[in-house]
Amino acid sequence: MAFYVVQFLTGLASAASLFLVASGLSIIFGVTRIVNFAHGAFYMIGAYIAFTLTERLSGAFGFWGSMVLAAIAVALIGVLVEMVLLRRIYHAPELFQLLATFGLTLMVEDLVVLIWGPDDLVGRRAPGFRGAIDFFGQNIPSYDLFLIVLGPVVLGILWLLFQRTRWGVLVRAATQDRDMVAALGVNQKWLFTSVFAVGVFLAALGGALQIPRDAVHHAMDLRIIVEVFVVVVIGGLGSIVGAFVAAVLVSELNAFGILIFPKISIILVFLVMAVVLIVRPWGLFGKPEAPARKTPGLTVNPWRPLTSNERLLALAALVIAATLPLFAGNYALTVGSEIAIFVIFAVSLHFLMSVGGLASFGHAAYFGLGAYGVAFLAKMAGLPMILCLLLGPLMGCMGAAVFGFFAVQLSGVYFAMLTLAFAQIVWSIAFQWVSVTGGDNGILGVWPEKWAGSPSHFYWLALGIAALVTIALRAMVFSPFGYALRATRDSLLRTEAIGINAKRIQWTAFVIAGTTAGIGGALFAYLKGSVFPDNLGISLSVDALVMVLLGGVETVSGAVIGAIVYKALSIWLISQTDLSKLVLGGFIMLIVVVFPKGIVGMLEMLAQRRRKSSPPGSSLLAKPIESAE
Amino acid sequence: MSVATPLLAVEGLSKSYGGIHAVRGVSFSLRAGEILALIGPNGAGKSTCFDMLNGQNQPDTGQVRLLGEEITGKKPREIWRMGVGRTFQITATFATMTVRENVQVALISHGKQLFNLFGSAPRFERGEAGRLLELVGMGGYADRPCGELAYGDLKRLELAVALANQPKLLLMDEPTAGMAPRERVDLMRLTAQIAREKSIGVLFTEHDMDVVFEHADRIIVLNRGTLIAEGTPAEVRGNPQVQAVYLGEGLVYDARHREGAST
Asked: In CATH terms, is domain A330-575 a member of 3.40.50?
């Protein structure tokens, strides 16, 4: 019995940090409507700076002073980020905000390694809380008791801050109706900046307070942010009480989940989240959101199929691509195959995200499922390659059918967070279920058969499938189904009023996109000869988002161009620098802030301008550019 | 009253929220080709009533029948399939698609081609889409992006979309709200003309009394959730109860004069 009590108390202690970070995220979201992906990064910087300060400043005062100083320092960094980055994207679609803050996270991960090195840092114990208390033969660290008390105290302070101060009243008002608060003459800029600073302060404090319990390391940001997403989704975005209750719930689920299902403790939490979202899509303490902003929608540029000239041009490009083996070496062909595979991956996400308006942050799950599908069929069932390629993607299809059913019940940021969570479930199964998936070691020796074995043959295979997939999905964009899907993206109210079952349309699109991603994954398994949990990880999901974004999220063929450019760039980048995350993160922020239309979107705009400024006869030059549309 | 089944029959419709009776025992009917206005002051229960007719809201008690068939409890999309088109108070259209594509989506849905993955949508019922747009005077705008349209044109596009499934009944929630006076008259004339030609029943709510008295064949008046008057424009105008609760006591609303001015 004593053991369970101790386990319960450990859970409560973990909840404290989680609550601090989650409440910060929630406060920021409430006012600015930005889901701050970089919140985990601020948490991590808070821990690192606090570590450095506690090493320098001695004594009890030095230790606790360091905690607060670190949080203040990070809050100042937050202010800088808000003024330089966020102010430019408050009116951008959610997708852009999530991506920009994710880019920031990537940069921070590299910066932290640059400054503090790659090794885990073990910090000082907290003065006055070094020992443990004996509880019927079980030890409870006294620092845990401190944290258990701290959580409710912070909740109380926040409550006072929001109920009793003028600033708090303004924040609550802005959470309900930003426009009204602006109309009342409140300086919005200052309010947003201060709210962001408070949110970041809480995150950094949460990170600093973890030092006596855990080592500081450079991957702690992603782990906390996924947990925090889960907490705010369960508790309800924008609700501080919700964040507290959900932080306790999640921490206790973790604490006891390990006892009950040691292998799948993570899954337990995600299952609870999925159930909460289905019963109360806006979380336990959240309020139903106003209609979500549309994910694309920077401009209104009607789509059209390619003209016959443009089709010829695309065919010519394909033929040229097919001649690559005549003059390129094996390395270039492997790169070419990888690019072709990522074109498949990108167009599959594009179909869901640009055509359907559903920005999935976990699309790699279906790519990876396709890859694992092939690995299982080839290694365990010993099926021939053709059959594996045909059947492997069915894993992606089935995964998309199950998760997609739940995901399409939601929209906007909730859809993004739920798809991310589902992808993490799949990732943790692949990672933890070692007996089947090989865990971290993956499944090795998935090699193509002889007929596709040489780099040039495999390249042609990948190129051919990529072309077929692209043509098929493009045809679907301009099929009756594609029209219906775009209709659900533009107005749910109207689709329902003209007899369309929007959820079924979106679910179908999700399954199509997942299956197509699975095809990409199946080829990828053969290209690499192996399958790893990374094939369904977050960073791969974000890669796909960036590819679509880079090409142009509002265009029909942006995904193809984006995939080619992005993949080529990143392969080159990794060969050139050790700081690829820093460069990539900066690159993502740059696209979002100055280049949100993407390559194809920009070209379209230029072509349009040229058409307007010159007589119709001379627009021949603009034609090939438009072929990218 | 005709012997045949009415197009729309509403019986004893009630809805309450907590202790507030938004709609209480409302009954009325509508014949094919008839234009019926549902009016009442703010908070009278018009919108609640309207939403219960098209399935966006479910009544506590009462029935709604379309040509004798029960539609209470059905979803909006099922009611549309039975031949009920609707337009919204704040227009709902597909902003990133062209005007023609907007109509084509409705035609695709009507033709049950929603899950057709490889057909050509741009060519789908192009002629029919063009005819519908001509009908509402939008023929010249077919290739324009819907997001660029003026508000009055959006309303006309909604009408074209609502007509795509050859409806028997049109439900129009404040069809002329937010429009210029000239546009209001045009839109309602157009609606009335189409309704009579195709023998479509029209039920609309409206705040603009000019529009109501000029275009409605019959008017029903709601106040505090109950039906207080029903009849031709002349009858309703003369009804002292309506004048008292709807037009306001003390304030004499000289509708006769206003009507004369607008025609």
From this structure: no
